[in-house]
Design a protein that fits this description.
By secondary structure, this protein is α/β, with parallel strands linked by helices. It contains 8 helices and 14 strands. The protein has a single domain, classed as Spore Coat Polysaccharide Biosynthesis Protein SpsA, Chain A, CATH 3.90.550.10. Helix content is 26%, strand content 29%.
């Protein structure tokens, strides 16, 4: 009883979630030649189903899923499973894939005005405690808070000592995109689970096709955007076919 109560407490002020599932999955061939990556199977369950069930653990059952690549397969899977117990609304990007930022903006009318919401990526699996993420978000009075870890990657988000977002770095190319100048930065890898205040829709300075990372960097100097370090939690980026084996070892 105590565990159940703890899971649902703190979520009352958070409404819907959005799962980004529209991508082409070019790194995940040959599966994505005939299927959307979101329906790749990990121990008998699709990545999409696992993310829907992950959100359910925190009382989040109103879920928006954006679709583009083999959209009909995703819609069919949702219909056949009755949304795996959640109320799933489709945001249709079949005309043009809009990336995460463009996809979020297109789905604006599907969110409840004024209500905080969560986003995550269909191809990431984690056991991050969303309640702790929201608690940190509230402590910082943040506009946007996203989960980060010490995971090794080629592209890092840069933070000050308080974990306020300052910029982005590609360690392969040496490119930096700095929003707030500091002498030293903390490098962390993006985990793709994000808390947004609804006011973000008034502030997004782009249209069409763009990444949420572009939004973060455009707003970071003037608005509180923070990273929440959850290093030590289970996390896998199911970006390539060989990562399925890693996912299956971590998520039975």
């Amino acid at each position: 009883m105590n565990e159940s109560k703890n899971i649902n407490s703190g979520i009352q002020q958070t409404g819907a979630a959005m799962i980004f599932a529209a991508g082409l999955g070019t790194r995940f061939k040959p599966w994505t030649d005939k299927h959307p990556k979101a329906l790749a199977i990990v121990n008998g369950k699709s990545l999409l189903q696992r993310n829907v069930e992950y959100l359910q653990q925190y009382g989040i059952k109103d879920v928006i899923v954006n679709v583009h690549h083999f959209a009909d397969q995703i819609i069919d899977a949702i219909d056949k499973s009755n949304g795996w117990g959640s109320n799933i609304i489709i945001s249709d990007e079949t005309d043009e894939v809009l990336e995460t930022g463009g996809g979020l903006l297109k789905a604006k009318g599907l969110f409840k005005p004024g209500e905080r919401f969560i986003t995550c990526n269909a191809d990431f699996l984690t056991d991050l405690d969303i309640n702790k993420l929201i608690e940190f978000h509230e402590q910082k009075k943040s506009l946007i808070t996203f989960a980060v870890t010490n995971r090794k990657t080629s592209r890092y988000l840069l933070f000050d000592e308080d974990y306020r977002l300052c910029g982005w770095r590609n360690v392969n190319t040496g490119q930096d995109r700095i929003s707030i100048s500091k002498n030293n930065y903390i490098e962390k890898a993006y985990s793709c689970v994000v808390v947004f205040e609804y006011d973000i829709f008034k502030l997004i300075p782009f249209s069409g096709k763009f990444s949420v990372i572009d939004v973060y960097l455009a707003l970071a100097a003037n608005y509180p955007i923070y990273g929440y370090d959850h290093s030590g939690d289970r996390l896998v980026d199911v970006g390539k076919p060989e990562s399925i084996a890693i996912a299956e070892s971590l998520f039975p």
